[in-house]
Design a protein that fits this description.
7-stranded mixed beta sheet, 265 residues
Length: 265
């Protein structure tokens, strides 16, 4: 079943890419969401509508959780649930940059079992199901483990605030990419050694990338080291830390006991 679900997600992701590229660099209408939740565009909504029609028609008994859909609590009772970000990295998309993605996952219970992250402007498709390898355009990926000193870590600047670290911020090299889903996949691919966020992360941003990273050989946890769970009532993860085993352990030790507000800063 996960393999069949993965094939469906791959089809849907590529169709989403075709829709998105029709709007990309074509000055789509956009506006800010309420409560400072960031921008949304007519492209986000068009992709979301297409994905919901395609995926829910194919799997009518699956629940639905998407950044661009009103939440329906009935998903919590579903054995399987789609977890979708129609366009992850909307700011990059609106700026005409290539680093936006479509993040599509299916959770069975509270664990992700099939996942695709597709970057249409780069013609890159990351994929995995729970019983198979992590793939980039059909080829297996391997992460690069590294000691903490000198590790390349994808993170926002606030995550390197000393308040989140024991003693001192380790000598890591910080870089950034606009799509959170893509950051997880870049670690799975071995382009960077780790990614972390001390802020709460929405499930639709990380569900697909977390499985892809795990199947590549990384450990994917919340920032505290707790296992990630999906299709939860909050639809939030308390931060994230994705890295191969040695580096993951060293980062957890360096982060230490989290301040109470860490995952909500």
């Amino acid at each position: 079943m996960p393999a069949n679900d993965l094939a469906l997600l791959e089809q849907a992701a590529h169709e989403a890419g075709e829709i998105a590229l029709r709007y990309w660099r074509n000055d789509p209408q956009s506006w800010e969401k309420d409560a400072g939740a960031g921008p949304v565009s007519e492209a986000d909504l068009a992709v979301n509508a297409h994905l919901e029609q395609l995926l829910r028609t194919a799997r009518p008994h699956y629940g639905w959780l998407s950044e661009e859909s009103a939440d329906d609590a009935s998903r919590l009772d579903a054995e399987h649930c789609f977890i979708i970000d129609p366009i992850d990295g909307t700011r990059a998309f609106l700026a005409g940059q290539e680093g936006f993605s479509h993040s599509l996952a299916i959770a069975t219970g509270d664990r992700v079992t099939a996942a695709v992250v597709h970057l249409p402007a780069r013609d890159m498709t990351y994929s995995a199901h729970v019983h198979g390898p992590a793939l980039l355009n059909g080829q297996p990926m391997t992460p690069r483990d590294h000691d903490i000193d000198g590790a390349t870590v994808l993170a926002s600047k606030p995550s390197l605030d000393p308040v989140f670290w024991q003693g001192r911020v380790p000598p890591i090299r910080r870089e950034f990419r606009p799509s959170l889903a893509w950051r997880l996949c870049l670690v799975a691919e071995g382009q960077f050694n780790a990614t972390l966020s001390t802020r709460a992360a929405w499930e639709w941003d990380i569900a697909a990338g977390s499985l892809i990273a795990e199947r590549a050989g990384c450990i994917a946890t919340e920032i505290s080291g707790r296992e990630m769970r999906f299709n939860t009532a909050r639809a939030l993860s308390d931060g994230l830390l994705i890295a191969p085993p040695r580096l993951h352990g060293q980062l957890i030790a360096a982060l230490g006991e989290a301040p109470e507000a860490r995952a909500r800063t």
